Amino acid sequence: MLGLQYAAQGAPDWTSLICAGGPASVPRFQQEVRDLMARLPGDVLDRTYGRELRGETDDPDYRVAQGEYLRACVLRTSSVSLDPELMSTSRTSPIASATPST
């Protein structure tokens, strides 16, 4: 993700970029992250994404809300429980199901 962001914003003098294990679609990844944040208690979506849109990322609560998302959806150490199907690593995406396995 960092390489993609750097390439998009910095226009480096590269001829190629290999992304291993990254999302197949950045817009879809962003939307799914927002959907997960919207399901969290405490208005995490507005406290993070809303503040990003308003340019308020220097608010200390912005980092607190990011931490709540990370604990619930990335590290999974939160007591918040989301739909297990949404959080499953075995969930098959339309892209993955179209790719033949080897």
Describe this structure in words.
With 102 residues, the protein is mainly α. 57% of the residues lie in helices and 0% in strands. The model is unreliable at 90-102 (pLDDT under 50).
How is the topology of this model organized?
Layout (H helix, E strand, L loop, with lengths): L1 H9 L15 H14 L4 H11 L5 H15 L9 H4 L6 H5 L4
Helix pairs in contact: 2-3, 3-4
Span between termini: 26 Å
Task: Let me know the average pLDDT.
Answer: 77
Structural class: mainly alpha
Q: In percent, how helical is the residue content?
A: 55-70%
Number of strands: 0
Shape: globular
Binned strand content: under 5%
What would you report as the Rg, rounded to the nearest angstrom?
16 Å
Which series of helices and strands comes N to C?
HHHHHH
Instruction: Please give the largest β-sheet.
Output: none
Number of helices: 6
Extract low-pLDDT stretches. Answer: 90-102
Question: Quick summary of this structure?
Answer:
With 102 residues, this protein is mainly alpha-helical. The chain is 57% helix and 0% strand.
Defining key terms:
mainly alpha; 102 residues
